[in-house]
Write a structure and sequence with these properties.
heterodimer, A: alpha/beta, TIM Barrel, 2 domains, B: about 375 residues, alpha/beta, seven-stranded parallel sheet, 9 helices, globular
């Protein structure tokens, strides 16, 4: 049909193209991963990249079309890339405008468990010494309600918060009375050993969620989490059951802590979560704070061993899905959301700018405000670097505009950090100034030596590698990316 | 396939008529409203005052039994579907009838213009460069006649936004006349690259107006080629962004054919990454009409041969939580995994089944064929379910 033009007449008339900002990092011996400004990735054969950046990629190369469609390059046929990239970047950082949404209240440091890896808890009968006071709780609530975010989450932490349910009741009731048009979600991080029907009724009435600890099968769990009677596992499993019965099955989630004893047991751990009818598991690394670092248990296993553990776990979970059992790994889901969507799941450890203070904040039992959970753990070890102020002595502005908060956030912004700036994985990664301060006494750390960097880089590469080679995994990961 | 427009046999003309009429079969309507109605009957009726009389069956041809001042037409058999409540346009100079609204149909679509700034390879309504603004003027009258309990109404073209402000006024009037009717407006969206135009559209605050806008590829070159217009991709994307900026609902429509199927999955990924705020994505089978027929070699791919691609595309859209539908396909040529997104979508007046479909146990769930597909080209893999 002569009245219709061939596709050739819509193609670029000149071989000139403009590169849009992108970065590339080695994936394996043959390929690079390239990411655009908004974190969309392409796997490129190594010999393609020099051609691309030297403006020698032919416009009729199929890869050229791909790179243009995904906003790695542009030419005179289209100018929309910069608008779309701008929207995607803006969407990614959208949550910053809302400021702090997670407010953690340490209602007591007391605990009836004596976990070796515990970073903060105390065993003591002296309530006054380790419980949050009513006055501090009211002042902390005032700060939480000052947050510009229309939606906040109040998480009760310990110690074991159920040792101080009176204060939880007080804070929940007060929060609801004072919240005006804010939406508030409540969560209690508890080992569930002390859960009882009266308090569950209160939880039900106020739609409070439960986050508990489950480290794996009975022997592993009880070894990790000693308590009088050595029945932590039984208490937890029973707790999960009664919470589900009283509040609904999606109102209780579980977190596992990885110890040296866990490393050879990943399949058992996953099986335990399956047996307890959880829809997924968060295979967590051990953090380097508190007792964990003092007892050197952190040093006992290195990042490589943990990565093996993680990859094995992931493999086992993917195999389950191939068998038709829907089960997900939540750390991967969080990262995949960053890789495959334009949104940001808002996971504090993987935020840049760092989420300290501006995404999550801790009101400690003694009224001091910390920039993150890790910050108060660091303080328990004697380093009060991230103590931002006191709920009754300092104003909201004092605390949240403190250079003690803003400087580490600004300094550690990964996009401007040496090595991070050049890293293809920067859009997926986080700034973790507290971690790097703890180890290196500066906010940026030395990336080649950073366990944080090593661990996350390896996971990013692993996830992309998995998707690259397997259509089933790609479809599965797309689902994980969108529901976490 | 229903014939929506064509000539009718004059029995008797009284004056000139060039108007819209609602069909009635009731010869005893109040005299004060009769002139707005076309009286439909099997046999001639001696009653005065109706705008026009339409005789369906065999009757007298000379019209002597009609009142002197009446215009009377005999309807050819293909207009037998007309029922009370339908709205027709009748022009007595051309002895022409056009059915504009069928009360029982859920697929009433109003053509606003045949002019267009696209020239799509598969256009089902090939554009004409003639002043047809009478279509718009007529639509302003039509919306006053359409019953207010009508669930939905489509406005189509050509490219309706070529009217500019007048289209905004039509949507405003539609909101006033038909406040409970949802509107589907088919447009290429390019005009909305003008933010001011999009803003004024938003100001109408129509409660339920969906802009159906095509994106045929994530590759700007391919999209521009399919619509045969340089720079169309950028303008359409900008248009969608502006419509969403002003709170409008946008449906993205992708017609599946040989020129779009290879990038269908990446196009869906593009939509989910860049236009995640779209309200609906429709993946639509090809209608074998208009330009598709001369371009058939360029466009035709048997749906059976792209069913894996279709499944993957739907899976991507579903994973991202995008509201997605598959239109204009037959159940026997798609995979089972897309049935949650499968819709019976073909407008009733051009919807048919093959003889081979007669014994099919799932015929009632199946969307069937465009009449044009049945006539010209359909999948070679149509098999009745046992």
């Amino acid at each position: 049909m002569s009245e219709f033009h061939q596709i050739a007449s819509y193609k670029p008339r000149s071989p000139n193209y403009r590169l849009l900002p992108f970065r590339f990092t080695e994936l394996n011996d043959h390929d690079y991963v390239a990411t655009n400004l908004a974190g969309e990735y392409l796997v490129l054969a190594k010999d393609v990249v020099p051609k691309l950046i030297n403006h020698q990629l032919p416009t009729d190369d199929p890869l050229y079309t791909e790179l243009r469609a995904r906003h790695f390059l542009t030419d005179h046929t289209t100018a929309i890339a910069s608008d779309l990239l701008a929207i995607k970047v803006r969407t990614r950082y959208e949550r910053l405008a809302n400021f702090t949404s997670l407010h953690m209240f340490v209602v007591t440091l007391r605990c009836e468990h004596s976990c070796q890896y515990c970073q903060v808890s105390r065993q003591s009968d002296n309530k006054l010494q380790f419980d949050m006071s009513l006055a501090d709780a009211d002042a902390a609530l005032g700060l939480a309600l000052r947050s510009p975010s229309p939606y906040i989450k109040i998480e009760f932490q310990g110690g074991e918060p159920l040792l101080n349910t009176d204060l939880i009741r007080h804070i929940v009731t007060e929060a609801e009375r004072r919240k005006a048009d804010k939406e508030i979600e409540f969560v209690i991080a508890t080992n569930l050993a002390l859960i009882n029907p009266e308090f569950l009724a209160f939880c039900s009435e106020h739609d409070i969620k439960i986050s508990t600890s489950l480290d794996g099968p009975r022997d592993l769990h009880n070894r990790n989490r000693p308590r009088p009677g050595n029945d932590s596992y039984e208490k937890t499993i029973n707790g999960i059951r009664v919470v589900r019965a009283a509040l609904g099955r999606n109102k209780v989630s579980a977190l596992m802590t990885t110890t040296e004893a866990s490393l050879s047991r990943v399949k058992d751990i996953v099986d335990e979560y399956l047996a307890q009818e959880f829809s997924g598991i968060f295979l967590r690394p051990l953090s380097p704070y508190g007792f964990a670092i003092r007892t050197k248990s952190y040093m006992k296993y290195n990042t490589e061993r943990w990565l093996d553990f993680y990859k094995q776990g992931l493999e086992c979970i993917i195999a389950l899905n191939k068998q038709g059992i829907g089960f997900r790994e939540f750390y991967a889901s969080t990262i995949l959301a960053k890789m495959l969507t334009s949104g940001d799941p808002g996971y504090v450890d993987l935020m840049s700018p760092s989420g300290i203070g501006i995404a999550a904040v801790v009101y400690n039992y003694d009224g001091y405000v910390y920039a993150s959970d890790e910050s108060r753990m660091l303080a328990e070890m004697g380093d009060q670097h991230f103590r931002l102020g006191h709920v009754r002595e300092n104003s909201y502005d004092d605390i949240f505009l403190s250079p003690k908060l803003l400087k580490p956030i600004e300094d550690s912004f990964a996009y401007s950090n040496p090595m991070c700036h050049d890293c293809a994985f920067e859009p997926y990664c986080g700034a973790d100034p507290v971690f790097h301060w703890a180890l290196n006494k500066d906010y940026i750390g030395r990336k080649p030596e950073s366990e944080f960097c090593r661990r996350n880089m390896a996971i990013f590469q692993h996830l992309i590698g998995l998707m690259h080679g397997d259509g089933f995994i790609r479809q599965l990961f797309l689902k994980w990316a969108n529901r976490c | 396939m229903l014939k929506l427009s064509g000539n009718i046999d004059p029995i008797k003309r009284a004056g000139v008529c060039d108007d819209l009429f609602t069909i009635t079969t009731d010869p005893s309507l109040p005299a004060s409203v009769r002139n707005r109605f076309a009286l439909l009957s099997q046999r001639p009726i001696d009653v005065a005052g109706y705008g026009v009389q339409l005789v369906n069956g065999d009757g007298q041809k000379d019209g002597t039994h009609f009142p002197a001042e009446s215009t009377v037409y005999r309807l050819p058999n293909h207009f037998k579907y007309l029922k009370s409540g339908d709205i027709v346009f009748i022009n007595s100079k051309r002895d022409f009838l056009h059915t504009l609204f069928r009360k029982e149909s859920r697929h009433n679509s109003i053509l606003l213009t045949e002019q267009c700034n696209h020239y799509c390879l598969m256009c089902s309504q090939p554009p004409k460069k003639v002043d047809d603004s009478y279509l718009l003027r007529r639509t302003f009258e039509l919306i006053k006649l359409i019953p207010t309990d009508t669930r939905s109404l489509g406005f189509t073209g050509g490219e309706p936004t070529l009217y500019g402000e007048a289209l905004i006024e039509l949507i405003r009037q539609t909101k006033l006349q038909l406040p409970c009717t949802s509107i589907d407006l088919l447009t290429n969206g390019r005009r909305f690259k003008d933010k001011e135009f999009a803003r004024r559209f938003g100001e109408v605050r129509h409660p339920d107006c969906m802009f159906g806008i095509p994106i045929y590829s994530d590759d700007p070159v391919r999209h521009d080629y399919v619509v045969q217009a340089h720079g169309a991709f950028d303008e359409t994307i900008r248009g969608i962004l502006n419509l969403k900026r002003f709170g409008q609902k946008v449906e993205i429509r992708i017609v599946l054919h040989k020129q779009t199927i290879d990038r269908l999955v990446s196009t869906c990924e593009f939509i989910c990454r860049n236009l995640v705020f779209a309200d609906h994505v429709a993946l639509m089978g090809l209608e074998i009409t208009g330009f598709t027929r001369p371009n058939l070699d360029l466009l035709w791919i048997d749906p059976y041969n792209y069913k894996e691609i279709l499944s993957e595309a739907v899976s991507v859209l579903n994973s991202y939580g995008m509201n997605a539908s598959v239109y204009n396909h037959q159940l026997c040529v798609v995979n089972k995994d897309i049935e949650g997104n499968y819709r019976k979508s073909i407008s009733d007046w051009k919807n048919e089944y093959l003889d081979a479909c007669a014994p099919c146990t799932r015929k009632a769930e199946c969307g069937g064929f465009f009449s044009s597909s049945k006539t010209y080209k359909h999948s070679a893999y149509i098999r009745p379910f046992a």
